[in-house]
Write a structure and sequence with these properties.
heterotrimer; A mainly alpha (about 100); B mainly alpha (about 170); C mainly alpha (about 425); A: about 100 residues; mainly alpha; Helix Hairpins; C: about 425 residues; 2 domains; two-stranded antiparallel ribbon; 4 strands
């Protein structure tokens, strides 16, 4: 019998993994992936509570998950475009070794 | 351990698909399939493209962590996850079941009516954010023009001697 | 109809006289019930899922074999040559010989390839496509699975094909493979949008995401003659054309077969595959074509519905597979007729032509519904023509404008002048 507890436990683990990745990694793409993991943990919580309430009452949870997925998609799109732009700028200006956001 | 970024991205994709499976198991079929479309179909592809476009050969593998950052990061994350877990362990009254284990499932029609009725503003704002993000991403990723003498001959543009191909590309615009 | 019936087992234990019409129509379902009836109670649930899966795979596996031969024969006819005609009657067993050849070939893996991903890529390509065949209704009550979001399921599992193309291209360690994968992914993502948009029009008009209900929404006849298929309305006609153009690109078929254009990048992401893995890729591609053709039939051509009330005596799955055959023949014909596009033409066509027209088609469908209230004589014809003009005129004008201003028109070949 799967209860909301199990969903929340999975979500907690997912959040922890994402947090560990976001804190320890220096690679921007990996950090972005970790942030997505944490977002999904939050979404999983919402789904767990929506199911707990029974979906007739809990359909608002689904609504917020939909919005969160849309925002996450927008975030990753802009984030990756930013990474691309920064990379291109550094390569063309031969600033590979120094961080671009200083001064 | 996985040392290649592409492997990491593919495993990340798999875990996103797993989360989608959990949604479907919880009775939220529409959410699970939307998650699959967005994460497996779009974001995963964006990420592998970004990896291929930005990382040079020496960066394609993940850096080894120093002992200090490893300990700090895992300690903080473990602390947060542990707190969540303890909070969870002392929570009672979450016994309800739904979805695959017999409870009601999410009605797509109901979700649509909420999106188009009471929460239409949230829906429209999400659409607006997506549009702005689309335009912003395109502008950010566009190659900015730079003066010829500063950058020298650009690698992706053929030299003058290469003839008709360069003219054709120039004539059609980007 | 039951006048000269024959004795049939209708399910487990039910034995009664049925006519030939009912026998053919209900036969597959009875066969399944009868087979499930033999099993112990615990195994029944598994068998009820497994039998349709095996049936779908068997039917489409055979269809895959026949379609490869039919494609080669039809292409041969278009190019004024006989095509395969040695193995079996008129060459129709050529696929068996090809299969044996593929199976006995050596499986070559490049030394620097990523072995795990190289092995997994064909599986990731084929499995989701086979899954997407599950939600298509092949006949009355003949559907392997009917989830409430069937159409969404189709597109959701289909999105794994992009990941598979990337896995194949990246793991091969070959620049042609990677280029092919890049092309394939760019193309699949670009053409998924018009594909989904034209399918969305149907969802809006039928009011359901379930493919079974979409087929049922197309039952009945106007004036008892013209079937109420979506293709008989202006938005449905435009939607079908948009859908088929996008479907040809999404399933990497000619003239959109740049990802594996042999004359340009050898074989695209399949360059480093041989033997059985290549056969699986090939199979995945054909299954993908069957799946989108089946979806087009379901969404626009009335699924398993007969074109005339008189013809409803023929079994419903027969009508479905007849329509599917027409769609496959259309794909083959287009492949034999049109030359391959260039990459920038391909992307421009998808984003600047198909996508705006898909969005416009959504509007036309709304107008079509809005004009449904007209009641003066000849209202039907006026409504039909008005809606057709609404989608047709912009299609022609926008196409001409783009052709003139952007130079997308007929290509002028200048050989190294």
């Amino acid at each position: 019998m799967i209860t909301a507890h199990h969903y929340l436990a999975v979500a907690a683990m997912l959040f922890g993994i994402g947090l560990a990745g976001a804190l320890t990694r220096r690679n921007s793409i990996l950090v972005l992936m970790s942030i997505e993991l944490m977002l999904n943990a939050a979404n999983l919580n919402l789904v767990a509570f929506g199911r707990q309430a029974g979906w007739e009452q809990g359909s608002q949870a689904a609504l917020w998950v939909m919005c969160a997925i849309a925002i996450a998609a927008a975030e990753s799109g802009v984030g990756l475009a930013l990474i691309l732009a920064i990379y291109r700028h550094r390569r063309s200006a031969h600033l590979d070794e120094s961080p671009p956001l200083k001064g | 351990m996985l040392r290649r970024l592409v492997h990491c991205a593919l495993c990340w994709t798999l875990s996103m698909a797993g989360v989608a499976g959990l949604y479907i198991l919880a009775g939220a079929e529409f959410l699970g399939l939307a998650q699959l479309i967005v994460y497996v179909g779009a974001v995963a592809i964006l990420i592998v493209f970004a990896i291929l476009l930005t990382q040079r050969r020496e960066l394609l593998s993940i850096e080894r962590l120093t002992a200090g950052s490893w300990v700090t990061g895992v300690a903080v994350a473990g602390l947060v996850a542990g707190c969540l877990w303890i909070g969870l362990a002392y929570t009672r009254g979450l016994g309800g079941a739904g979805g695959a284990s017999g409870g009601p499932a999410l009605e797509t029609r109901e979700l649509g009516e909420l999106l188009m009725g009471r929460y239409v503003v949230a829906f429209e704002v999400a659409g607006l954010v997506l549009t702005v993000a689309l335009i912003g991403a395109v502008i950010l990723a566009l190659p900015f023009e730079q003066p010829r003498e500063a950058s020298g001959r650009r690698a992706d543009r053929p030299a003058a001697g290469e003839g008709w191909d360069a003219r054709r590309q120039g004539g059609q615009g980007a | 109809m039951n006048m000269e019936g024959i004795l049939a087992l209708t399910g487990w234990g039910g034995l009664r006289w049925v006519g030939p019409v009912e026998l053919f129509e209900r036969g597959p379902v009875w066969l399944r019930d009868w087979a499930v009836g033999w099993l112990p109670e615990g195994a029944k649930v598994w068998a009820e899922g497994l039998i349709p899966a095996v049936a779908v795979l068997a039917v489409f596996g055979l269809l895959f074999g026949l379609a490869t031969v039919a494609e080669r024969k039809l292409l041969g006819r278009i190019q004024n040559r006989p095509g395969p005609n040695r193995v079996g009657p008129y060459g129709w067993l050529q696929f068996a010989a090809d299969g044996v050849k593929m199976l006995t070939k050596e499986d070559v893996v490049p030394r620097s390839a990523d072995r795990v991903l190289h092995f997994l890529a064909p599986i990731v390509m084929l499995a989701p496509v086979a899954l997407s065949l599950a939600v298509i209704p092949y006949g009355r009550d003949l559907v392997a699975a009917d989830p409430r979001c069937g159409l969404l399921f189709f597109f959701a599992v289909g999105s794994a094909a992009e990941v598979a193309a990337f896995m194949a291209g990246w793991s091969s360690r070959n620049k042609y493979s990677l280029l092919g994968a890049m092309r394939a992914i760019a193309q699949m993502i670009s053409y998924e949008l018009p594909l989904v948009l034209s399918a969305l029009t149907v969802v809006m008009m039928a009011g359901s995401l379930s493919l079974v209900e979409i087929v049922e929404a197309q039952s009945g006849y106007w004036w008892g003659v013209i079937p109420r298929w979506h293709v008989m309305t202006p938005w449905g006609l435009a939607g079908l054309l948009l859908f088929m153009a996008a479907a040809a690109a999404a399933s990497n078929r000619a003239p959109f077969d740049l990802p594996e254009g042999e004359s340009e990048i050898i074989g695209g992401f399949m360059t480093e595959y041989s033997g059985f893995k290549y056969a699986i890729f090939f199979m995945g591609e054909y299954f993908g074509m069957f799946a989108v053709s089946g979806l087009a039939v379901t969404l626009f051509l009335g699924g398993w519905q007969a074109p005339l009330a008189v013809l409803e005596a023929a079994p419903s799955y027969g009508w479905f597979f007849l329509k599917l055959g027409v769609m496959i023949a259309w794909f083959i014909w287009v492949r034999g007729t049109l030359p391959r596009l260039r990459v920038d033409h391909l992307l421009n066509f998808g984003w600047k032509y198909l996508l705006p027209l898909g969005a416009l088609n959504l509007l036309v469908a709304m107008v079509w519904r809005g004009l449904g209230g007209w009641a003066f004589p000849g209202a039907g014809a006026v409504r039909w023509l008005a809606c057709l003009a609404m989608i047709g005129l912009p299609a022609i004008l926008w196409g001409r404008l783009l052709m003139r201003s952007r130079g997308w028109g007929p290509r002028v070949y200048r050989y190294a002048s």
